[in-house]
Give the backbone structure.
Amino acid sequence: MNSPLVSIVMPAYNAQRYINDAIGSVINQTYENWELLVVDDYSSDNTKNIIENFQKNDSRIKPIFLSKNGGKPSIAKNVALQTVKGKYIAFLDSDDMWLEEKLQKQVSFMEENPNYALTYTGSYWIDASGYEINRLLPEYKSGYLLQRMLSRYEINNQSVMLKKELLNHTLMKFNEKITIGEDYNLFMHIIAKYEIASISEYLIRYRIHNDAITKRHKRVTDGVLLTLKELDKLYGIKRKYLFKYLLTYLKAIRFKYMKKNWK
């Protein structure tokens, strides 16, 4: 099998509690041809020192230290995207982890199936202490999945691997207007144009804890509404998939104004 370079994007802000585990899970990958771009969003804790200590022992780790806090993960991620060199791009937040064969299995699949622009995997959900609280496998297999993803989006950002070349044909970067859900926005634009596939294995550990930005902001709402608007303008999805479009739109409105759970 070819061993193309994988560029890993990791935004980090005041991440000292978990970032050792996150970076360690990259270093422990069975697939070795990667670069890790850790973007420290002007942390005020010990995050910078931790990143620098890892870099001293592994030249594949490439820190980027921002001179001021951007306040949004999209900004830090876009800084990293300007310097990625890999054929593939993967994403890992500083409080989550990968299983050891995550990159190996995903690269192998994408090299053998070059028609897929993006792949994603199943996930273990863990609590702040690392104990498993849930697990999810993808329900969808492969193909043009926009219609299905409209009503039930099942992609975990930490599990995604995509072709770098896609960024030249979609949005080029994450939407910095979005505070939470910038990954949903970018990936839905890719899903609208290309075939994607899932790998039905648990290959990531996704941490749920009170400090997580997705926990504080509940994740979606404004990002979903903006994404629907953009996709409708580009592809007319309201007309094509009216029921599923309205279902997602109304869920977002209910979530935003009635403070109901997203379900």
